[in-house]
Amino acid sequence: MKKKLVSIFVTAICASSLLAGCGSAESAKTSSVSSASAADGASASADGTTTFTVGFDAEYPPYGYMDDETGDYTGFDLELAEAVCEIYGWELVKTPINWDAKDTELNSGAIDCIWNGFTMNGREDDYTWSDPYVDNSQVMVVSENSGINSLSDLEGKTVGVQAASAALDLLQSEEEGGQKELADTFAALQQFPDYNNAFVELQAGSIDAVAMDIGVAKYQLESRGEGYKILDEHLNSEKYAIGFKKGNTELCDKVNEGLQQVLADGTFDKLAEKYGIADMVCLEKKGE
Questions:
Q1: Mean pLDDT within 29-34
Q2: How many whole angstroms separate alpha carbon 216 and alpha carbon 11?
Q3: Separation CA 250–CA 247 (nearest Å)
Q4: For the purposes of burial, counting CB atoms within 10 Å of the CB of 72, is it exposed (0-12), middle (13-18) or buried (19 or more)?
Q5: pLDDT tens-digit profile of 116-139?
Q6: pLDDT at 95 over 70
Q7: Residues 42, 65, 112, CA angle at the centre, nearest 5°?
Q8: Could you identify which of 30, 69, 114, 213 might form a hypothetical disulfide with 243, taking C-beta atoms 3.0 to 4.6 angstroms apart as the criterion?
Q9: Considering only CA atoms, which of 104, 75, 87 is closest in space to residue 50?
């Protein structure tokens, strides 16, 4: 899934106004296009190549993760970003980031966007957002033999959650739709750097449940086999979108146009089927 690049001409003005890519990350192969499609917001390198640097959580399947067999970064979001880059002839630079530091990475110019199962609900005013493309819910995963069958059964239990995640925000929120009242019934709300660590503790019995996105939960259960279940009672419903630095509407609009093209040519739906989230996508066609 590592792909490479193509050179296209951009003016020197773009280089001073737009975000820079990380040269140590992976690149995506792209096809040749005319200079008219040069990145209205992506970064121009010294050799005239236009790069588009995506920041993502490398342990967040099926949206972004490392393939154990190839050692390449892959996932629904990364393949989707790759498809958009191929339209414009951009070089995709895949940059794994510490999720806690995502805002620093974005605002410093180290990445052009945050594209990795990124929840826009509750953050609407913090970023310039693309069109939402996945309708996702927050759920609880428990062991099948735990005796936990509803959210109320979590009273007095220890619940794990990824640090700086939408699930954590939800469980700490006292606003309408927030679940702090539920979280206050837990014995503890324990934060982990990623969900792989949380599942290790769940399997060991150190925690009783993990709060997470349903798409990630389904992937984890499928890859880990029997022994876990998703509670029927969801915590909420939310939508994923691509987060750009506040005010970067030029690049956001360009990516939205690219998303419409991959939706129209069938690539979007094929990727959703490939990664098992076809029943969750919500990207709408425009201009019809």
A1: 32
A2: 40
A3: 8
A4: middle
A5: 999 999 899 999 999 999 999 999
A6: yes
A7: 15
A8: 114
A9: 87
Instruction: Report the alpha-carbon angle 244-93-163, nearest 5.
Output: 55
Angle at 179 between CA 210 and CA 188, to 5 degrees: 50
Token pair in block for residue 176: 């309408």
What string of H, E and C letters represents the secondary structure of the chain?
CCCCCCCCCCCHHHHHHCCCCCCCCEECCCCCCCHHHCCCCCEECCCCCEEEEEEECCEECCCEEECCCCCCEECHHHHHHHHHHHHHCCEEEEEECCHHHHHHHHHHCCCCEECCCCECCCCCCCCEECCCCEEEEEEEEEECCCCCCCHHHHCCCEEEEECCCHHHHHHHCCCCCCCHHHHCCCCEEEEECCHHHHHHHHHHCCCCEEEEEHHHHHHHHHHHCCCEEECCCCCEEEEECCEECCCCHHHHHHHHHHHHHHHHCCHHHHHHHHCCCCCCECCCCCCC
Q: Which residues pair with 59 in a beta bridge?
A: 65
Summarised one tens digit per residue, pLDDT across range 151-203 is: 999 999 999 999 999 999 999 999 999 999 999 999 999 999 999 999 999 99
> What pLDDT, on the 0 to 100 scale, is given for residue 42?
79
Q: CA torsion angle for 261, 262, 264, 270 (degrees, to 10)?
A: 180
